[in-house]
Amino acid sequence: MAQQRSAAPALLPAYLVVGGDQLKRETATKRLKARLDQAMAVFNLDERTASANIDPTDIAISLNTLAVGDGFRLVLLHDANLLPKAVQETIISYLDNPNPQCVLCLDAEKLAKNTRLYKAVAKVGKRSVIDCTPLRARELPSYLVKHARAKGLVIDDAAARELVSRVGESTTQLDQQLETLGELCAQTRHITKDDVVRYVARTAEVKPWEFLDAVAAGNEAKALELYRHMQNPSHIALLTLLTRRFRELVCARELGSRGQNTRTIASELGKQEWQVRSVVQAARRFSTSQLVGCLKACARCEAELKSGEDPESSFLRLVTELCQPSAILMGCPDL
């Protein structure tokens, strides 16, 4: 035991690497494998993926096998949440008296905290559970900026947001695209939004709020691009969301003109403050009369959709009008 602790003093007898962030989990398991004596890794690494036919006796033997050489032995089990009950019970019993020359690592996308297996690993030590909960979508751009910096790259916030929009929320896929962009922009080591648009194909499913933000911001090109990548969009559903968004813009503009701050506007709209920042910003590009005109255009589009007119033409005409509010009420004074 003294030898194992001197070689790897920070290691515990067992770890649970758990969460939906695949890149974090892969990083954690790679770091553990890197701690092995690489000359003896072929003898000291037992890496498996859970399946229904895993033998609990075989797992017990592997866990209690002594390390070859002066290092430690690593037993790495992927998809640990899918381990058969008998294997889980074997591991739980083992952790009462673990092999001092072995480190067990359970890798799982999810494992409930109230399960016996989770509790058994959590009892091993304060650092035994490695939380790999995915970042929220709004946290990913700042994560990418820092992640790129660690790779010797610079990616600005606009480029990071565009990359998340196109690739989605998988940190593994984002990391892969960042590597590719780094190679394509090797001369400057600086990734811009134009680089992302030029080199990264949109593979992520378009979220309605992205489309709404683009329309409200007057970015017709992006709005139409997002619309084209939607899978069988419902014109009525999107129109309902657009109408609701422009009513929010009316509220934000009127409250803003009275000196109310974002927190108050968020409270009036029944949302979190971060959720309405884009709404408050977009509201500034409209006059009151233009917003009223936009709502009238939404009502006209609804009537057209219900009357049997070509839904695609009617809806796309509306998108163009909402992105260019001056075309609705050219020169009309504020109401």
What does this structure look like?
With 335 residues, the protein is of the alpha/beta class. It folds into three domains: 2-131, P-loop containing nucleotide triphosphate hydrolases (Rossmann fold, 3-Layer(aba) Sandwich); 137-199, Helicase, Ruva Protein, domain 3; 208-327, Up-down Bundle (Zinc Finger, Delta Prime, domain 3). Helices cover 54% and strands 9% of the residues. The chain contains 17 helices and seven strands. It has helices spanning 2-7, 22-34, 41-44, 56-64, 85-94, 116-122, 140-150, 157-167, 171-184, 193-199, 208-216, 220-228, 235-257, 262-269, 277-283, 288-307, 311-323; strands at residues 14-18, 45-49, 73-78, 102-108, 129-131, 154-155, 190-191. It starts with a helix and ends in a 12-residue tail after the last helix. Mean pLDDT is 90; it is low at 1-9 and 330-335.
